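Before relying on records like the one below, remember that each one covers exactly one chain. Contacts with other chains, cofactors or solvent are not represented anywhere in the record.
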Amino acid sequence: MFLSCPILAAFLGMFIAQFVKIPIHFLASKELRWNLMFSTGGMPSSHTAMIVSLTTVIGLMSGFMSNEFAICVVVSAIVMHDAMGVRRHAGYHAEILNTLLADFNSLIETLKDPNLKKPESREKLKELLGHQPTEVFFGAITGIMVGLITYYLYPF
């Protein structure tokens, strides 16, 4: 087989979580956005689904008392904590910076003083980076389901 069961489960977990974001967003907003397939943030967390799928399969293959499973659990905890913490707060900061830049440019345009420098023109910072705890939770549920299904359907 080209891919090992753990690698296949991990990539399937990520792919399925990314794909599911499209219909979930459509149901919530009635807006079809295919670009969500390649974006960060949103429901469910694909990072979490990926690492939890891997962890689930490693647990099933190596045993839930194995060193490999212990390593996967620790890495999973780090990934999930990072998704809810650092990455989510970076998104909040990006949102504030984008607002400040827009306000600054608006002020410069309002003053119309020829001595002032031209308004800042930059691409907006990406605001949707991290996840709410609910999004990480459902990423974990997705990962467990994908890991179980992959393990039981994989032709060993």
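The first helix runs from residue 5 to 29.
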